[in-house]
Amino acid sequence: MNLKVLLILLFGVYISCFSNNENKKNENQDKKSLAVKVEILITKEGVYNALKWFQSNKRNSDYTINENELNRLGYKLLYELKKPEAAIEIFKFNTESFPNSGNAFDSLGEAYLKNNNYQHAIKSYKKAAMLLKHKQLYHYGFLDAEPYSKTVIPSDTLKLFESRGDFNKSTAYVYLQGGPDTELHINAKDALHLMDKDSTILRVYPFQAQMLNPELLITNPVLTEEQSRMENEKSIEILHRTINYLKQRNKKVYLIGHSYGASICLEYIASRNNLADKVVIMGTDLDDNISSWSQLKPGEYIRWEKGVEPKAKKVFGWLPDDFPIKLSFDRLADNLTVLVKNNIQKQYTQSIKEEDFEKLITVYATEDEANGRKSQKEINFLYSKGVDVIEVKGDHHSMLTKDFMGYIFRNKLN
């Protein structure tokens, strides 16, 4: 076969494939959305008739099946139209159509829970938790408990943090987020992205122990004080190695922590040789008042009304009191609480070195519901040490705004 004939044959195959793809594309474009059709029928004929049509036509090849569209339809039925049983039918079909979608099973679990069908809710939520790569904290309540297993820190320092921006920059901004959470939340709303529009600044996000070892949250029995101390020490070691790595590359390092992340920063500067050039502590105190914690029942944590009055509340208060696996969620909440308590029960006004007070900036909110308003006694102490103390009007997250973080970036860290 000569080259000319071969080229003609190959061209024919290409044209045939292109034509088939175009035909399939046009065929799909001609099809109508199943979810949209049902929504139109709901408006015209009501939920009962629309659902009846859906049951007869959900396998009809004339209609396209879109996971997100079905999910939105299900939620419209569940919350806007107050039809949980109809929503369940839509969500069930979505899981049948997309059996590997954790989000589809999560929505089905929510509908079952709303309809007080607890066993089916548990089954669906557990399936979602097993499928989802990125889990919410509540998903861990549906997973089987595990015995305590120590977090192992990678020997490669580059695996201890994620970064964004230009690593050749001479200044690194290091952020420890609140939580405890099981993954980093790097997005437009994190403290470093709120600071400045310059996408080239070097942003560094160290991991925390429970991010490397999420099973800590489902440890049974609940983490002991010693176990939580060891795990917080792992988070501090990760931060120490991250900052050391940056300083070895002759970078100026500004360390920023919020809430639980700020408590890790405080323990770092109290227990290690603090290599950061400035440390911004937001949403936690050097000497936290945890006297009210002694009255906590399983599954509870403290919330401060208007930042001044401590009240015990359920971490997963949205779950019904008679939920069959409620103890699993109490255990999850208690594992979170013991991790937080291990650092904030310490008195950092006594353990931070004199030279490190000069590097410190503290930010507190007037109506901090998570941490409570900073005491005047601590404010006076910090002033006596020359610490920059900044008050923000609002709640626990009120400092995480473009205006405030931009102010910190322009006036305190440059």
From TrEMBL:
Alphabetical UniProt keywords: TPR repeat
Ranges occupied by TPR repeats: 102-135
UniProt-recorded name of the protein: Uncharacterized protein
Organism: Flavobacterium piscinae
